Amino acid sequence: MPHKTQLYHDVPSTCWPIVYSPEYNITFMGLEKLHPFDAGKWGKVINFLKEEKLIADDTIVVAQEATDEDLLVVHTRRYLNKLKWSFVVATITEIPPVLFLPNFLVQRKVLKPLRTQTGGTIMAGKLAMDRGWAINVGGGFHHCSSDKGGGFCAYADITLTIKFLFERVEGVSKATIIDLDAHQGNGHERDFMHDNRVYIMDVYNRYIYPGDEFAKCAIKRRIELDWGTEDKEYLQKVETHVEGALNEVRPDIIIYNAGTDVLDGDPLGGLAISPQGIIKRDEIVFSTARKREIPILMVTSGGYQKRTARIIADSILNLHNLGFIDEKLSTSSVENPKVELMITECISDLTALSL
Ligand SMILES: [Zn+2]
Question: What residue stretches are annotated with the Histone deacetylase domain (predicted)?
């Protein structure tokens, strides 16, 4: 019997399957400024979406913090205990001063936001099955596996979400992870190494962190990119391989790790994708999933520049304008010929802009 969890409660049909909590944002005496991470990115995305009147406070789903019991579905007790040491958390989050904080503050100011984002991804997994799509405005901690964190990732939210679905939602026995963050997703790869129910596609810069050769064995479709890869090559590869992956195996759900650290100028990603390129990339993934009527869950993962939040919000607005995401329960809008026409027009606009 699965344990009792608060994360799978019913959500009113008036809410969009967009999950967020103000708790996501890390703020503590300027500590967050010491990491090359815009630690308020998640709140800014929500503010942009509110300004554009896509959502309001009462039409989004408020994420709840994952409890120890929830986390133990994947994590070992040994690993969770290690997080009670500030130096371990300082290493995982790459914020060295965390080392000097008493652990109760580390728990409250650093780990709680990450646990709330993790709860958000798990909640969004169920919502994606109910509604056809869902977006967690945070999450995407793809470097963390059941017994090891790293690269700012302290909890394995993608693994947890898939295991929750396998255990609790009837009809979910196959999942595909499409990981388009600039880094290799070694956390979920290690967790699903010998699990044939999970198909992993990973597109990343081959020269940067983590270079985890062992984890690469779990990737079914591996696309390694060179420094400075630009829109044309990138989008062609994404389109070909998303189609290819879904032709190879038809999953019951897609987990889309939509990292924006592929953006030109990102100090960590080392790629050169334009803002329009990222918007187009998300569109390719959503249009492919929605046309095939496969539920899709998007998490935002890495992406560290000041302009990142605006790009994520613009991408979500674009998905809405094209009819790929809406508040309705059905997936029928993608069959609408008017929408098809808009898609074609938009593709030609974007081609002119960015290719
Ligand atoms: Zn990344």
Answer: 35-316
CA 287 to mean position of chain CA atoms:
17
Residue 114 Cα to ligand 1 midpoint, Å, equals: 16
Does 75 qualify as catalytic in the annotation?
no
Q: How far is the CA of 269 from the centre of ligand 1 (A)?
A: 6
pLDDT in tens, 295-340: 999 999 999 788 999 999 999 999 999 999 987 654 444 444 344 3
Output the CA angle 156-178-278, nearest 5 degrees: 110
DSSP letter string, 157-214: HHHHHHHHHHHHSTT---EEEEE-SSS--HHHHHHTTT-TTEEEEEEEETTSTT--HH
Q: Phi first, then psi: what are they for 18, rounded to 5°?
A: -110, 120
pTM here is 0.91
Q: Across residues 239-256, what is the average pLDDT? A: 98
CA 170 / ligand 1 centre spacing (Å): 32
Which two structure tokens, joined as six digits, stand for 118? 């993790």
212 CA to middle of ligand 1, Å?
14
- Among the listed residues 142, 143, 188, 241, the single catalytic one is 143
Domains delineated in the chain: 18-354 (3.40.800.20)
